[in-house]
Amino acid sequence: MAFAQRVVDPKLGTTLEILERLISFDTESSKSNLNLIAFLEDYLKSLSIAFTKALNPAGDKAALFATVGPSTDGGVILSGHTDVVPAAGQSWTSDPFKLRHEMDRVYGRGSCDMKGFDAICLAMIPEFQKARLSRPIHILLSYDEETTCRGALDIIARFGGDLPRPSAAIVGEPTSMRVADAHKSIATYSTIVHGQAAHSSKPALGANAIEAACELISSLYAFGEELAKVGDPSRRFDPPASTVHVGMIQGGSARNILAKRCSFQWEFRALPEVRQDLALRWLNDYAERSVAPKLARYSREAFIETITEAEVPGLKPEQGSCAEGLALRLAQTPGTICVPYASEAGQFQRAGFPTVVCGPGSIDQAHQPDEYIEIAQIEACIAFMRRLAAELS
User: Which member of 24, 38, 67, 243 has the lowest number of beta carbons within 10 Å of its beta carbon?
Assistant: First the structure.
């Protein structure tokens, strides 16, 4: 391979060895990550690094927190997640849970999003130990980032209590090693329309849940058009507005029966300064004014409900924050960017920690078949970590 024919940093080899192990664990969000966590525990023990494990209520997933350097306040936390999106149904050209190295890329589920960053953090621990840090470097590896972004919350809540309080957080989602200071929030919902079945030849005897759901969905997209007119005052985001999207709809039992039930799953991605529940408030108001009265004309049992499944806060720009200044120095890139996806960064910021997003790889590769990360991006992140160690020593 071309990669093997050039002189490389030994730390790159260690990173790829760890990444190979991390990718071998199928940690799709619907599955347990405890086998991966057990591997991390053994690795940290081998380096004499103390750690804290936080299990979820079901006991089948865990977040792991470790500190290198003095156990004091004022350090920097490097945040990653261990879960990945499903590979099933995608057209992979090799086993998604086996690292494949071709030319200047490595392939595998999570290589970009974001086990590559995790592996770099873990591989750098021996160097962090040798750096004689005066301020600590913390590593937090969470679960369920791809679904709820709540897997880090138990650890975050303990900062300043039984765990040291960091002064800044760097979330290593793929930004091609640019420093991102903003991203949209995301809220996900399931709306269920409860109607009443009847023969389609006598619609007055029932309440058609599909008809009501279609009207609600149309109203959401009309709301999205209004949001597009308002746009993005900062002119930084792409797409340049808050957006709504309906991804799934299910309902009905037969073509000639009024549907008793219809549900649809939808999301709202809001600019950082926009209320996270704005679309929900819009839908509830429209349903109450326009849809529910018609739905209930012929049935007292007909009603509409919306269940909030996840709310991930956005990341608001904090110009001149210690996290921004630090990350810009370490990344050695001009200025900040914003990213279109949500991350755990908003959870850190909401808890009071200056936060930025900066990590290796391109978001264009995340969640894709044959997901990959470029070797050059791993090398750039290793250099970033070395500068961090020097900064905190």
Answer: 38
pLDDT along the chain (393 residues), means of 10: 56 95 97 98 97 97 97 96 96 96 95 97 97 96 95 96 96 97 97 95 92 97 96 93 97 95 97 96 96 88 94 95 97 93 95 98 95 97 97 95
Residues serving a catalytic function are: 83, 145
> CA 29 to CA 85: how far, in whole Å?
7
User: For the chain, what are the domain ranges?
Assistant: 3-183+314-391, 185-312
CA distance 302 to 288: 12
Non-local CB neighbours of 154 within 8 Å, separated by 6+ positions: 54, 63
Nearest to 311 by CA among 358, 340, 278, 337: 278
Helix (H) or strand (E) holding 224: helix 209-230
Q: Which CATH architecture has domain 3-183+314-391?
A: 3-Layer(aba) Sandwich (3.40)
Q: Is 352 in a helix, a strand, or coil?
A: coil
Determine the CATH number of domain 185-312.
3.30.70.360
Q: How far apart are CA 77 and CA 344, in angstroms?
A: 12
Rounded CA-CA distance 208/194 in Å is 9
pTM exceeds 0.85 for this model? yes
- pLDDT for position 291: 95
Closest to 84 measured CA to CA, from 27, 122, 123, 131: 27
Contacts of 142 (CB under 8 A, 6+ apart): 63, 79, 80, 81, 82, 151, 152, 155, 344
Q: Report pLDDT for 304.
A: 96
Token digits for 50?
């103390």
